[in-house]
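Journal club prep — side note

Before the paper discussion, L.F. wants everyone to see what a predicted structure for a comparable chain looks like in token form. Sequence:
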Amino acid sequence: MDKREAIGSWLSGPRAAAEDMGVDFGYPGQRLGLPQEGPGSVARFGRRLGAVAIDWAACQVIAYGLITGGDQGAVGNWTLALFVTLSVLTVGTVGFTPGKRILGLRVVAEDGGRLGIGRVVLRTLLLALVIPALVWDRDGRGLHDRAAKAVQVRI
């Protein structure tokens, strides 16, 4: 390997370098036995982010209009509390939040079943910390989903 190839592999990233050497990573969700496209496939980042944005905006509207009466100092804390409550209650019972439902997503266990309440609480608390949700594996699952042994799929 000459200097150009070494620098090129560094610039393109470790995945591209590994693929150049013949490593096959497959598609997101293949290791979990999920289809590549359509219902049951791993939800992409854009949809997941959109679902969180819808849920957050709804919680913010409720916090601003109904709970705090417009007190700007308390809106953020109430929004987070409502978001955590909404996520635990809805994902724990029906498998999706309103935002996820609007965008056609569902949270399921790795084996395809429902998540227990303990795993839903763990997942939601890690999601509230934000950082675990921004670090994901090659299947597109955030650390919060990996810790809860969950996956977000399209419905």
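L.F.'s comment for the group: The mean pLDDT is 87. Keep this in mind when we get to the figures.
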